[in-house]
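request received
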Amino acid sequence: MSFYREMIAAGFGGQGVMLLGQIVAHAALNEGNNVMWIPSYGPEMRGGTANCSVIVSDGEVASPLVSSPDVLIIMNQPSLAKFVGNLRKGGILIYNEDLVTYDDPRDDINIVKVKANSIAMELGNEKVANIVVLGALAEAADIASVDALKEAVKEILGAKKAHLLEINMKAFEKGQEVGKQHVAQANS
Amino acid sequence: MSNRVLMKGNEAFAEAAVQAGCKYFFGYPITPQNEIPEYMSKRLPEVGGVYLQAESEVAGINMIFGAAGTGFRTLISSSSPGISLMSEGISYITAAELPCVIINVMRGGPGLGGILPAQSDYFQATKGGGHGDYRLLTLAPGTLQEATEFIMMAFDLAEYYRNPVMILADGFMGQMMEAIEFKKVKLNYDIPDPKEWAIGYMAERGKRALIKSLSLDPEMLEKHNQKLQEKYRRMEEKEVRYESVGVEDADVVIAAYGTTARIAKSSIKKLRDQGMKVGLIRPQSLYPFPYKPFNDLPDGVKHVLVVEMSCGQMIEDVKLGVQGKVPVSFYGRCGGMAPSVEEIEEAAKKLLG
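response:
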């Protein structure tokens, strides 16, 4: 069976969901896969939801449209309502517990709750909330490996933003802890 | 593998043009192609070129007219309504027989329309958006990789035929990111040195170059048209490009180009997995159109399904190719909506009965 994974990341503009998706794409590319990243660029961006889709495959990526993702990253409430019904049965929902409440959740999906904003605030910069979520994704999903994702964060920050590397790595590791807990619970 | 870089479509288009030797870009902003001028504004000065933001699309295409006349490689890009504004200039450039590359990152129309992807400029690109008996060599890439290769090739084609070449992309292609390997694409054609015809170079050539599109003597103008037509016939002989997948044993053949063809490929894979025989013909050149594969469809093919992000434009050329041998149906979405994998699957299933 060939490897084919689809992901949607959604939130408010400014929460870094586009970058999160790009990091996943970079990581998967570095692992030798074919990747496709596409943003929503509609006029609904302001005040509504911004989202991007990522496809990772060891074969051809034909259709760039993602209708039922394997992985869903939700950073704000409106995005949950918009996308949660589309998540593939058995897929992984990772949501930002600080800004999203999910009453009556689906019982046919795996759910990882991350206090992304709180953790980021504790680290001293709320902007790294997306990297906290990325860390959780690294452990909970198989779209790209932990090492490749970590490397991709470093690569994207580059020399220009090297001073932000430490806090981003901490954020990633905090997210990993949440992801690991989820995996341990799921296996117990 | 190691040379692959993750790039946004628009930026990759621009980089491909630079690598093909493009030195001049005159653009005007419009979504969803804004990253092309943005990238060029940074990149062209690095290679000794000039980026200039024109005051309008009309001004931009006329700057291209002038720059192309000097024999340097020029690029202009826009999206649907902007291309309409440029159409007069495009007609002038074809009349003056100058090379240039035009990228249209299509969005939904008509009018100012929306900013989301569409393919509703097929008629405009292939049947002439401007006036007069002219043709644009029109290439429709399917992936970003193919787009970079077509753009490099387009500069050679434009110079070889001394005719504008249009790259017909769509908003999806402009906005998406994929891994790209920039390969040096060079056509093995005997491309005349621009010094033979461009302005300047009088000392080398021994005579002046006269570049114009006005021709008041009807006999002269008819002759000029005949010369252009002869050129278009040569393009039709030599520049037809298409991809054909699984047509040999197909009951239904889907015809689609660009992003729609990518979506259709996923639909076809699903249909094949269910034992249904569906193939694809993906025109890569829209002018000249690949009529032959439609004319030569295997006997087993019972139906052709044309899928577009428009209300049905390429279908007219497909019908000309099929020549009534089998029915030709249409499925399309428009206005910035794209046909889903499932929708195309359903449309094909209906025909399979």
